[in-house]
């Protein structure tokens, strides 16, 4: 067992849209991410994705036009196969992500400068 300080984890990096692995449980990665602005539209065909906002605000836009607004202390699970786009319009949001190990952050979208194939472990 290893204790993880979220404050220390977030203090260790400043890059946005580049999640870091904090822990692994039952083949799930718990990741820390700094988010600001808009991400790419994408889906994870075989993986649910949990977003938990620690600080700031985050909107999860859905392709059908709906969206979920999250403030600090709130979370949502985007079901597998649902096309979505995280957006942090009001400055940086600090977010925990929980998803199966090996899940690509850009899902089924074409690889881009935001694609992180091997996230750093903190």
- State the CATH architecture: Sandwich
Approximately how much helix is present in the residues?
Answer: under 10%
One letter per element, helices H and strands E, the order comes to HEEEEEEE
Could you please say which CATH topology applies here? Answer: Jelly Rolls
Folded structure, characterized:
The structure is a single chain. The protein has 122 residues and is mostly beta strands. The protein has a single domain (6-100), classed as Jelly Rolls, CATH 2.60.120. The longest helix is centred in the first third of the chain and has 6 residues, at 6-11. The chain is built from one helix and seven strands, in the order H-E-E-E-E-E-E-E. The protein is 5% helix and 46% strand. The mean pLDDT is 92. Strands 1, 2, 3, 4, 5, 6 and 7 form a seven-stranded antiparallel beta sheet that branches. This is Cupin domain-containing protein.
Keywords:
mainly beta; Jelly Rolls; 122 residues
Please describe the topology of this protein.
Blueprint: H1 6-11, E1 20-25, E2 28-38, E3 49-55, E4 57-62, E5 67-71, E6 75-78, E7 84-100
Antiparallel strand pairs: 1-2, 2-7, 3-6, 3-7, 4-5, 4-7
């Amino acid at each position: 067992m290893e204790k993880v300080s979220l404050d220390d984890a977030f203090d260790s990096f400043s890059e946005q849209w580049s999640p870091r692995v904090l822990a692994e449980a039952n083949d799930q990665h718990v990741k820390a991410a700094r988010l600001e602005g808009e991400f790419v539209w994408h889906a994870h065909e075989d993986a649910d994705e949990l977003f938990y906002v620690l600080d700031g605000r985050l909107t999860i836009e859905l392709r059908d036009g709906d969206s979920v607004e999250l403030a600090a202390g709130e979370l949502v699970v985007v079901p597998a196969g649902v096309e979505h786009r995280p957006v942090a319009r009001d400055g940086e949001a600090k977010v925990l992500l929980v998803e199966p190990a090996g899940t690509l952050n850009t899902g089924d979208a074409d690889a881009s400068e935001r694609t992180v194939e091997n996230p750093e472990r903190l």
